[in-house]
Design brief:
Strand content: under 5%
Helix content: 55-70%
Structural class: mainly alpha
CATH architecture of the largest domain: Up-down Bundle
Order of helices and strands: HHHHHHHHHHH
Distance between the termini: 48 Å
Number of helices: 11
Length: about 240
């Protein structure tokens, strides 16, 4: 139990660090009374390109920040616990590609907030269940459907004050990322595959006994003379 807790704490270091940094940016804007909206993504402009990296850290108000923080913590926790091998790489890919997509295809307004990244993470976990087809990933996909179905409305266009482009494009990026990393199996998934291979080895039939070439010439001749050369094997 203690080792599992230590492993959990270690895996959660970078997700917690990101969340803390996101909140720190918000409180700095409140304390200094500054508006960082100009650091959001403004599509297809040089000055707006920086927003690809800064936009997810900027929120309009406390409600906006909290609405992104809760699902962000939930999704990052799922990823580091069940997909630790690719969690950070997938997060970074979703983070950057979502911002880049909004910069390329979004409306000419400032886009701020981490909701696009959240949609990308949700899509990643759900579609990993589709692409990987392991029992673990399928169960996680079902959990996502139950918990986050209301979020699907966020991708509908023409919602005033909402960057629906970030939601839609983040979801598409999440699908791409889950497909890209589908062959990066986790330890438990590899153990399952090895188990299947072992079972096949046990039931496979061989022309000669498996230890034939481990025997000496004298041992092979003695086995042949005894008439037991094929006793432990059958033809394919």
């Amino acid at each position: 139990m203690g080792q599992a807790l230590q492993s959990f704490k270690k895996r959660m270091r970078w997700p917690i660090s990101f969340i803390v940094f996101m909140w720190a940016v918000f409180f700095v804007t409140i304390i200094l009374n500054v508006d960082l909206g100009n650091f959001g993504i403004y599509p297809r402009t040089t000055v707006g390109f920086l927003g690809i990296f800064t936009s997810p850290l900027i929120h309009a108000n406390f409600k906006h920040l909290l609405s992104n923080t809760v699902p962000m913590i939930g999704m990052l926790t799922i990823m580091v616990m069940f997909y630790p091998r690719v969690a950070m790489k997938a997060f970074l890919m979703i983070y950057v590609l979502t911002g880049l997509s909004v910069w390329c295809f979004g409306r000419p307004v400032y886009h701020i907030g981490a909701s696009g990244v959240v949609y990308g993470l949700v899509a990643f976990v759900f579609w990993s269940g589709v692409f990987r087809r392991s029992m673990k990933s399928i169960v996680l996909a079902l959990i996502i459907v139950i918990l986050y179905t209301p979020m699907f409305a966020g991708i509908l266009p023409n919602q005033e004050g909402i960057s629906w482009e970030s939601h839609l494009l983040g979801g598409i990026v999440g699908i791409f990322t889950s497909f890209y990393y589908k062959k990066y199996l986790e330890v438990d998934e590899m153990e399952k595959d090895n188990h299947i291979i072992d079972d096949e080895d046990e039931t496979r039939q061989y022309f000669l006994p498996r230890d034939t070439f481990d025997l000496t010439m004298e041992e092979r001749k003695r086995r042949q003379d005894s008439g037991n050369w094929y006793s432990d094997s059958t033809f394919l």
